[in-house]
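Below is how a single chain appears once it has passed through the pipeline. First comes the sequence as given, then the structure the pipeline wrote out for it. We keep one example in the README because the format questions we get most often are answered faster by looking than by reading.
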Amino acid sequence: MGAQLYHQLSRRERQIMDIVFEMGEATAAQIVDRLPEPSSNSSIRILLSILEEKGHLTHRTDAGKFVYRSTVAPETAKRSALTHLMKIFFGGSPTQVVAALLDDPELSTEERDELRRLIDQTRNEGR
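Resulting structure:
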């Protein structure tokens, strides 16, 4: 459920979720320290509660502190975000996504080779 609605979160909620995904789990103080714009600990705690109510986060208690983690596996969230991005910016076309990647001047030869290898592997596996 959470991954399907990830793109519908506010900008600040997405920033919080990005930090939680990056760290695996985080306290409110750790999140505040990593946010791009300053924010109070109390406002972040409110957003963390909202994200729990929406089903995106859960928490455990460790030494009296809430430690938050995503309810959705990072791979599931990545796939959902990519599907959304593909739909909005590339007309739902995976081919256009790959073409845009291949057109990126910062894409290294090694990365191009890895993309080729992954495509070949997928083809060989019949996917």
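The mean pLDDT is 90.

See the next section for the split statistics.
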